[in-house]
Structure formats: C-alpha cells, structure tokens
Specification:
Blueprint: E1 2-4, E2 11-13, H1 19-39, H2 53-65, H3 88-94, H4 101-109, E3 112-114, E4 117-119
Antiparallel strand pairs: 1-2, 3-4
C-alpha cells in the first residue's frame, strides 16, 4: 500500500506486518527500548516515546526565553529516505548479543510485495560479528 507524502506528489510505501510479526516486534521493542532510550540525547525529540513536536517547541521556547540563553540556533532536519539508508551491518553490530538478533536481521532483509511482485530491499546485509 502506498500513501501520499505531504507537500509532494510522491508516495511512500506503507509496510503492514502480519500479526505474528507485530507481536514479535513489540516484544523486541520492549526489550531494547529502555536501554537505548537511556543512551539518546535528552534534547532529541524525533520518533521518541512520549515525546512530540510540542515538547520540542516547549524546550525551544524555554531555552530562548530563559535567563542568559547560550544557544540562539535550532536544528530541524528532515533527512530524505533516512530509514532507507541505515547501515544494516552497523545496526546489527550495535545489537551485540541481543537474543532476537536473528529476527531483527530477518526484518531488515524482508522485502515488499507490490502489485503481486516481490521487491528486495535496496540495502543488503553484510555479515559483521
């Protein structure tokens, strides 16, 4: 299924995993999220649980209107096809000995079926570790 990209005539593919994969992905998320959330920069708001654009706007407002603001710039980045360009080998290496590494590898390698044709992901996994 393809959905329109805002502000453009392009469409992006929308993956709809089967129920079993959704359940397994939720389990993997529950296992990985606490550790990885602790590693992220506190001032990062994109794709973070319990955070949204209004939280970012509030932080910017507080910083710029606070006593003696030290930073007068804000970075807002929309990286084109960022998730298409994630280095799978580096991601797998970062997972270390995570017990569900094999499942994550399979999810990264999974292709899509579009109009009855199977399309492989553009980025193939290299073996690391």
């Amino acid at each position: 299924m393809f959905i329109p990209k805002p502000g453009t005539t392009k469409k992006r593919g929308l993956g709809i995993p089967v129920i079993v994969d959704r359940c397994l992905q939720a389990v993997a998320l529950g296992a990985l999220e606490p550790e990885w959330e602790a590693r992220f920069e506190p001032k990062s708001y994109g794709f973070r649980p319990g955070r949204g654009c209004h939280d970012a706007i509030g932080a910017i407002y507080s910083t710029l209107n606070g006593k003696n603001p030290q930073r007068a710039w804000v970075l807002d980045a929309d990286l084109t096809a960022a998730f298409d360009r994630i280095d799978h080998a580096r991601l797998m290496a970062a997972l270390g000995t995570f017990p569900a590494r094999g499942l994550v590898r399979q999810w990264l390698k999974a292709g899509v079926v579009d109009r009855g044709r199977f399309a492989r992901p553009r980025r193939e996994l290299r073996r690391v570790g």
